[in-house]
Amino acid sequence: NGIPDSCEITSGIELDCNANGIPDSCDFLAGTALDCNANGIPDECDLAAGAADCNADGIPDSCQIAADSTLDLNANGTLDACEAIGTTYCSPAVANSTGLPGVVTILGNETVFLNDFKVSARDLPQGSLGYFLASTTPGLIAPVLGSAGSLCVIGSIGRGVGGGVLSAGTTGTMIGAADLSAMPQPTGAVAVQAGETWHFQLWHRDVSPLNSNFTDAVAVTFQ
Known about the structure:
Blueprint: H1 5-11, H2 24-30, H3 43-48, H4 61-67, H5 80-83, E1 87-89, E2 103-108, E3 117-122, E4 129-135, E5 137-141, E6 151-154, E7 158-167, E8 174-177, E9 197-205, E10 212-221
Antiparallel strand pairs: 1-10, 2-3, 3-8, 4-7, 4-9, 5-6, 9-10
């Protein structure tokens, strides 16, 4: 525009939040700065000012969630991957008809008396039905008749954790709140006790490669 950048920056006509001597608007035009939330401030400056980036990928979490709401299934403004509890095992699962393996994420808190516990899964076939399994005993059984993948919980296996039969809907995800005072088991619901380790997995319907499939599994030790 015929005006030296340094003059525009000094006079306040243009902003240079990262102090690189180039107006932010020029950084945007050149593609050397991103503005995922279209607020006129480079993402790096939003992050420097305190915007959340829990996975440290250089993109504000709010932008990632706005672009894909399934990254925050409990809708608390934090990426599920950053607040997941427990330890994943039996991973990766056998890919389902989406071409991806189903993934279980446990959200909430391991402290029993808080009773804040949610089971969730993603990368599932759209519209598929399924239910979460729970057992205090991990295992590995494969093949399972009529199912792809491995059953990673054995012993006394409770079904329908977090709300019975759930649907993956149009997003290919499921989430349900579990009552730790009434964890499903074959002989009736039981209360989870501090010090116990429980294991969770999702079984779901699918059209390929077999009639159903399993996700990976997560072990949670309660406090």
